[in-house]
Write a structure and sequence with these properties.
Number of helices: 6
Number of domains: 1
Number of strands: 4
Strand order of the largest sheet: 1-2-4-3
Largest sheet: 4 strands, mixed
Amino acid sequence: MGLAEKRLAESIKTEKLPAFEQKLYERSGYNITVDIDWATFTAYDEYPLSRLDIVFDDIESFVKKICSDEIGKEALKESMSIIKLTNTDDSNEVKMELKDSTLFLNFQLAGSTFSSFTDSQIASYVEGKL
């Protein structure tokens, strides 16, 4: 990790992440912790970090879809309190899983490809687990 990655990661940690968690609170009505495996996002170059804005938008949109009514808000609150974000350069490790009140989202934001989940994919998956 170079200086550029360190600066960008610090900016996300101190500015974007708190604002993002506040948006999730506004959508869901409860605190959702976003746990980012920073080492997996800074191990390459700035590109994976720069893609977090898109990931944040998709997550906010999925929470909005699930929490469109009180039934959805309550179901999500009972099932998810943490979102764990991990980056990988191995396409075989790209997956999502809801387990032990944690939504694990593994993306491939490194290398020459971009593999993520859309808000609809995340919402469909989580809704099926609620």
